[in-house]
Prior knowledge:
By secondary structure, the chain is an alpha/beta fold. The protein is built from 19 helices and 16 strands.
Amino acid sequence: xxxxxxxxxxxxxxxxxxxxxxxxxxxxxxxxxxxxxxxxxxxxxxxxxxxxxxxxxxxxxxxxxxxxxxxxxxxxxxxxxxxxxxxxxxxxxxxxxxxxxxxxxxxxxxxxxxxxxxxxxxxxxxxxxxxxxxxxxxxxxxxxxxxxxxxxxxxxxxxxxxxxxxxxxxxxxxxxxxxxxxxxxxxxxxxxxxxxxxxxxxxxxxxxxxxxxxxxxxxxxxxxxxxxxxxxxxxxxxxxxxxxxxxxxxxxxxxxxxxxxxxxxxxxxxxxxxxxxxxxxxxxxxxxxxxxxxxxxxxxxxxxxxxxxxxxxxxxxxxxxxxxxxxxxxxxxxxxxxxxxxxxxxxxxxxxxxxxxxxxxxxxxxxxxxxxxxxxxxxxxxxxxxxxxxxxxxxxxxxxxxxxxxxxxxxxxxxxxxxxxxxxxxxxxxxxxxxxxxxxxxxxxxxxxxxxxxxxxxxxxxxxxxxxxxxxxxxxxxxxxxxxxxxxxxxxxxxxxxxxxxxxxxxxxxxxxxxxxxxxxxxxxxxxxxxxxxxx
Length: 536
């Protein structure tokens, strides 16, 4: 078996994956790929944010198609085994599998990187096809063509994982990038020896292919294409299934189903189906803890890298998103935009591609708590964001003031928010006031799960703060415009919102700390806020 050609590495890795307790069977994608491989000369590029299962899927595809070894011990027990095409296509192709994020030892130039790939693949081909006269000095594509001419039935499946990895290395120049795209074009485009080329990455091909070099690929992004959308990330049904497993496996489960939705949901397919970040869901269930898993890995953690390209243009929309509102933005045209991220649309589009923002109905928004926490951390550090930075810093004081019933400090912070240039502060209705509350209570997200319009008692409360520590102070917050905070407190009492902290009848209370009823009001005539806090 070779290093790239018919390697057994993918089989070993994917088999390991299937043995894990929170494995999800995604083999239905093979029903789409088998006809493409049978037809020949098909090219598929899947672009998704990192940690969305691209590499596991590549290992699965290689394990299924590759003639390197019999993988029926894996696939006989998975969904694809029920398909009529299954047995005929299992382990029936020579597969060239290249993981493009691997570098040679002490790699400092693009030439060292690409020569490693060429040399190892040429050695594989010489070993596998001794009946073909091969000159080691020939280009890889010439050798593959010779093999196909000698054996016309030999057509290869190429699986290229993380095709755009090399573009993020410091030693790679713009000229190198052009050479790399030409290499892929020479290797794959218009070649009779290609049965199927399956390629994955983060950024769309057109980001780097300025001409027609790689236009034979059909690209499938999460934002713009429905096909393959359910094959990457976890669907609602799949997370339900995993959670049931978790409740059986874990002796003292601490993760709630609602917690998984709050922390890791928020992505959408083009058709609107909810999608969870798979790595984070699995890590959370495995560790029995809701936490930041996806955003703590990889080289693209610094969200501010994108924002700093155009702080003035992005800042106000960022305030809107952090306040919980979506922002209109063009994303579909991203593949044809400039590489310099010089406009707001380009910045938001890049953030959608990397998974920092979600995209639906022509709007971008922060998808979940995992990402919201990352944004909030960034806001507290970047003074160049002006008033948003100040509000983020003041949110610590706002929470302390609320817990201490310090009305004067609360009013000071609310007045500052009102007097800034934030475009969302038209204060025409409670929705505008809601946006402000989201901003001034940013720090509370570190200690509370904050729900908006949550069903409680005999109505729906504006905000309810569920503490992470069951003995900590619980907060119920009601908003009023052109009415009084006393009316807000009375509504909290009359609609019995505090019952939300009591738990189910006959069971122990889920929260045992004191409960604060907080009323915040705004008068449009006087343009003043008023607050009242009462312990229930």
